[in-house]
Records
---
Amino acid sequence: MPAPPRNDSSLTQYEMRIGGVGSAAISGMTLDVTCPSDGTVFGTIPRGATGDVDRAVAAARKVFDDGSWRGLSDLDRGRTMMAFGSVLMEHQEELAALEARDVGKTLTLAKADVVALARYFEFYGSAIDKFAGENIPTATGFMALTFHEPHGVVAAILPWNYPAQMFGRVAAPALAVGNSLVVKPAEDACLSILRIAELAEQHGFPPGLINIVTGTGLEAGSPLAAHPGTDFVTFTGSPEVGTEIQKLAASHRVGCTLELGGKSPHVVFADADLDAAVPVIMKAIIANSGQTCVAGSRVLVQRAIADQLSALLAEQFKALVVGPHWGAFDMGALISEKQKNRVQTMIDRAKEQGVPVLGQGAVSTDAPSTGFFVSPILFGPASRDSDIATKEVFGPVLTLLIFEDEADAITLANSTDYGLSAAVWTRDIGRALRLSRALQCGQVFVNAYGAGGGVEFPFGGVKQSGHGREKGLQALREFSAVKTVIIAHG
Ligand code: NAP
Ligand code: MG
């Protein structure tokens, strides 16, 4: 049985956003909001379910049908979105503080995430009036044109690792083309998204355009993906739930995109510039405590420099300090006790299996013992078929593996079920280009990782990392459908 609502007045009672107003769940039920840095419960969110999803989808449909958003010119929609980017930056401190407390990430990272969130609105707001259709050459006396039509009501089921950024990544392109939205954030990461939606209502987005239903995956996410009133589903999270989402979308025959994580490699050749590579490799695994779909969680190194790179990375790992989001630490807590236990179990199992530990960081003595902290760890060299070398950990764990030559590097890089992102480190341009084509994934960096702004690059997976592309101009195509108009003009 669900727990009854808490009446503790010290807890902030957050509300969902449906039809432009704050709302409790129809049931009155709530879920606790926990701070990962110290394990304290500081608020509640509504425990939404089918009836709440129905209300949200109806509100989104109403706005879609009345044309108050999609009926605007691309220029006017775009202007509202670009202006909202500035609004978000004005609220950077507030949003970052809310998100850091909710999910445990460092304040520095939370602030950077708000910059990325704002950039999504600026990027798509400024792109939409250049998103032209085609004029297709055809038979004499005919003219053929294409238009990018919005799907209608887009359902978005989001993960907990980058709530504000993920909201921007999905909402900005979907809204730019004229869709309405119903978002189901992860139950552990709702607060920044609720506030962003409220700000949007106050800054030119029609009430009911952006609806946020909070609740569990099964009770709120599942009825949303299955809802016949939704026209497209986007999901980011685990492969297991992704499979369910695709089935639910298929139950009412709509499209979906799935972004399901990875085991992304850095492929480091003997001629690589290690001074450049090491800090980038570190950042790619410690950012957000490794809870990143594109975490660079494998480092594949050519045998000739394996000892040298191992030593350099080990030194870095040993210096890492983990602590609460309010301090100046390299990493914050993991999202929940469940994730902490899951990650720690994978670490313990790798140790039991005899995978060598090259270096490990420490949890600060200032960190509350009730927080969800895990010490970052570098394993290696690991055997190629070990779990720690092939399974996604979603925590601060880097696994080093050794390869012999270029062909072996490609085989090893492509040897997991995943295919999201990769980096190639070499001074040989020919080799860099050959690997860029041979690596099975959606993004390849050469002598870099996670570089550039990120928002402008199409992004998504192959193999078990999912399908569909978000980010970049490609997302505008994903969140719209081409309509072809053929005119006989004589
Ligand atoms: P998850 O269960 O896949 O959750 C992702 C989202 O789906 C959340 O909003 C979740 O809601 C919702 N959900 C869960 N079950 C659902 C269902 N049956 N129907 C509809 N929606 C459902 O992921 P997780 O358990 O939080 O994390 C597990 C693993 O997923 C991680 O360890 C990591 O490997 C992977 N992951 C990947 C990414 C990524 O960026 N690719 C992000 C997060 C997690 P609730 O959380 O509220 O239940
Ligand atoms: Mg929380």
---
Amino acid sequence: MTIISPNELVRAVAALREGQLVAFPTETVYGLGADAANETAVRRIFAAKGRPADHPLIVHLPDVAALNDWARNIPPLAWQLAARFWPGPLTMILPKALHVPDVVTGGQQSIGLRIPDHPVAGALLRAFNGGIAAPSANRFGRISPTLAEHVQAELGDAVALIIDGGPCRVGLESSIVDLTGEQPVLLRPGHVSASQIAEVLGMPMAQSQRSTTRAPGMLASHYAPLTTTRIVDSDALLPAIEALLRQELRVAVLARQAAAIEDPRVFWQPAAHDPERYAHDLYAYLRQLDALQYDRILVEAVPESDAWLAVYDRLRRAAYTAPGHD
Ligand code: TXA
Ligand code: MG
């Protein structure tokens, strides 16, 4: 387990207090952190990411008691979910406390909150003793970072400090559940599954209608490599590769099935059969395949079951192209 040195912790807290950005590891992905109570600092997050101002941030908390500082009219269900899943990869959307700066919530009356389950994030939050606003530490629309090196490559110039906590355990962003309406809604699937949340709630959860772009993770194209990426059914994978080779194109493949072709124009990245392992590796693999700068990335389709839902969702966004474009 990576433990942050007292020295680095002091530097990180000082940077946050000065309104600077600090990238830090969580169990899901690396976050780009700023003092959530400092509007100038929070604006720096949007500038560094190139993120539109109306896309709200998640505020990370040191402990459950802090929930009262950032949210109001907190329903009993929220306390139940907190007791069951925090610290952990679940974000709750609640009515925001009145003092929360608009810049944090993209002008909305609600706020996203979570307590991350990572020793470094926990130590940082407790030492800072406040809320840290932190989106994933990547440029807007791109792949979330699961290694400190990813943050360095993409945002190194914009941050005061990157705390290296090694690879993120989960590898995909937190599950997001909206508790501001009559019925809880799953806005973003993640490691905490829909059925696990529904079990605590004692009621089924509505799936998001995807009619709103309140959550950037809900834009159709997100978490995307620059290389054109396609999802292909298992049976269709080999024919699809052969068709691309006939067009003289080079193909990077991410597949659970074993490499089925030997060709210098094909790079084959074997993927895990287990959904948790697959999720853990996914973003690092997508970055590696993207860095090859081949003509296409082909990803073997994954099941649509509850266990694979978060992976399925991220792959769909990585492979999204606007209608009419290839
Ligand atoms: O695992 C995670 O959640 C990571 C780590 C760093 O904690 N953070 C993360 O942040 O993924 P970000 O900004 O990349 O994604 C946060 C999502 C966005 O889709 C955002 O719009 C949504 O949470 N969100 C935040 N506040 C919201 C609100 N009030 N209403 C609806 N969606 C909200
Ligand atoms: Mg993000």
